[in-house]
Amino acid sequence: MKKEFETSPPSVSEVIQELEKYASNPDYPGASFIMMAAWSNLSKDYTPILCQILNDESNNGLHESVIELLDVLRDERAIPALSKALTYRWSYDIWFNVPRKSLLALAEIGTPEAKMIIESAAQYPEELISEDANLILDNW
């Protein structure tokens, strides 16, 4: 399977179709394969479905992976979803990985709107988030 994947990765439209299946069914068995496929064939065409997945706070199995892809894609259309992800708090995420990765993705996008969101996050009560936001702003 791996060799087959390397020689003929799924097309962008095939990846989008699989991401749509995951978005409608968080228990979709091919979720991690979809993310590998997306990494092997990067496209900003993924942004809308990735944002749809990220906007669903309860469907959080791939949130970190989705944010990492959005970080690399640097698509301004992801700003609202990344901003929303800054507010996610789960008992198991004691290090605030999703909000902190969202900060990094916003920094990579680098627009004035993204910077304003990071400036706002610098005032968050969660020290890990506000410290990361301030570090990003110090290096802006």
Low-confidence stretches: none
Largest sheet: none
Radius of gyration: 15 Å
Number of strands: 0
If you average the pLDDT, what whole number results? 93
Number of domains: 1
Beta fraction: under 5%
What is the N-to-C order of secondary-structure elements (H for helix, E for strand)? Answer: HHHHHHHHH
Inertia-based shape: globular
The share of residues in helices is 55-70%
Derived from helix and strand composition plus strand pairing, the structural class reads: mainly alpha
Q: Please give the alpha-carbon distance between the first and last residues.
A: 43 Å
Q: Quickly count the helices.
A: 9
Oligomer: single chain
Topology:
Blueprint: H1 2-7, H2 12-24, H3 31-40, H4 47-55, H5 63-73, H6 79-85, H7 97-109, H8 112-121, H9 127-138
Helix pairs in contact: 2-3, 2-4, 4-5, 4-6, 5-7, 6-7, 7-8, 7-9, 8-9
Q: What does this molecule look like?
A:
This protein has 140 residues and is mainly alpha-helical. The protein has one domain (2-138). Helix content is 65%, strand content 0%. Keywords: Antenna complex, Lyase, Phycobilisome. It comes from Nostoc cycadae WK-1. Belongs to the CpcE/RpcE/PecE family.
Descriptors for this entry?
single chain, 140 residues, mainly alpha, 9 helices, 65% helix, globular
Brief digest:
The protein contains nine helices and no strands. The chain has 140 residues and is mostly helical.
